[in-house]
Each structure stands twice: as structure tokens, then as C-alpha cells.
Amino acid sequence: MPHTPTALRQTSGLVAERLRVGFDGHTVLDDVDLRARPGSMTGVTGPSGTGKTTLLRVLAGLVPADSGTVRYGERDTPAPGAIGMLAQHPRLVVNPRWTLRRIVAEPAVITGGDVDVDAIAGRVGLESSLLERFPAQVSDGQLQRACVGRLLVQAPHIVLADEPTSMLDPVAARSVIGLLQEIVDDGAALVLVSHHRGLVESRCAEIVELGSR
Fold first, then answer.
1. CATH number at residue 205
2. Residue 93 lies in a domain
């Protein structure tokens, strides 16, 4: 019988200390500390060009820091599948040749597991009839819901969300933030990057403000 995730795995979250990153002689991140706790949101805010996306890439293990440390519980590197990411522009990160059903099911396909995609679609407010469509045939909000559904299937310890609502209308944005809150309530540690100070202040237990020095 297909399995529908109902709760995310518990984790110790992550702790980043004194991160420094530079490119071409330019310092992007300078002595940045961040803690993401399980069942909680940590906000990252600041003006454009202050390294918010770079910070997420360092936390995901995609970009090495010049100095500083990142710990994932007791590990120096994240366990396979422990980190899930939600992009600002979902169309740039999904395969345009995949249906939404395939996009949602991707983590289970990789691991050889089974999942009830229709049930996941219902949880994220995505009509089952849309699952057979391709990204070009749905709205940004619908595609972002599918990407959140993929996170539910993956059940990561840590979610890194990079301006996940910037491309959405206010109604869709509120819906996606609500879905992310459900993922946090299921036990994930979530790092939310946003230009909107009000959003991070209302949702996040801790806030890291870049470019404030």
C-alpha cells in the first residue's frame, strides 16, 4: 500500500559558526552565525547582495566556506536526504519534461519507495487533476505547491527556503508559508530567507540579519 508521510524525522537541526565566504576578492559572508532548531523557523533577511542565497548554499553543502563550521547534529556533513530545498524560482529547478506527479514523487523514485501522490497533493491544496500537467501548464503558485509536496515526500531534517513566496501573489504566498509551517510543526528545522522583515518577525524564532554591520 502506498505510504503517505505524516510526520518528518526528528533532528538536532544545524549550527553554523563564524562563516566567512569570499569570491574574487570580495567578501560575501563575514563571521556569520546561525542556528536552526527542530520544530522551529530561523529567518535570514537583509538587502539584496548581502549573501543570503550564498549562505543557504553553504548550509546545504553546495558551496564551501573559507572559514567557519557547520554542524548537522553530530555530523560535519548532512546525511543523504537530510536537507530539502525550496527555490525562489521553481521553474528553474524542476524538470520541465516531468509532470507535477513525477515532481512530487521524485524523492520516492530515487529511494525506490512508494508514496500516495494524490494524498500529498491534497495535503498541499493541489488538485489531483493538475498532477498530470507539466510545469508550463500551471501557475507559479501551483508549481510551488508541488515543490512543497516533494518536500513532504522527502521528509528532510532541515529545509532551506530561498525567498519561496517572492514570485507568488499574496493568496498563494500565504498558503505556501502555511504549508511550510506545517512542515516545521512536523519536526523539521527550517531556514527561511526573505526580504520581508515582517514575515520573518512573525514566523521565525530566531533571525539572522545580513549586511547589518
1. 3.40.50.300
2. yes
pLDDT higher than 90, residue 59: yes
pLDDT for position 205: 92
- How far is Cα of residue 163 from the mean position of the Cα atoms in its chain? 9
DSSP letter (8 states) at residue 212: -
Total structural domains in the chain?
1
Amino acid at 29: L
Bridge partners of residue 37, in order along the sequence: none
Q: Provide the domain limits for residue 122.
A: 14-209
Place of cell 539572522: 208
- Across the range 66-79, mean pLDDT stands at 91
- 6 domain residue, yes or no: no
* Assigned domain for 4 exists: no
Closest by Cα among 3, 177, 188, 173 to 105? 3
Place of cell 493538475: 130
Q: Does 85 reside within a domain?
A: yes
| Nearest one of 158, 150, 148 to 78, comparing CA atoms | 158
Global pTM? Answer: 0.90
The radius of gyration computed from the CA coordinates of the chain, to the nearest angstrom, equals 17
Helix (H) or strand (E) holding 7: none
pLDDT at 5 over 50: no
> Would the pLDDT of 7 be above 60?
no
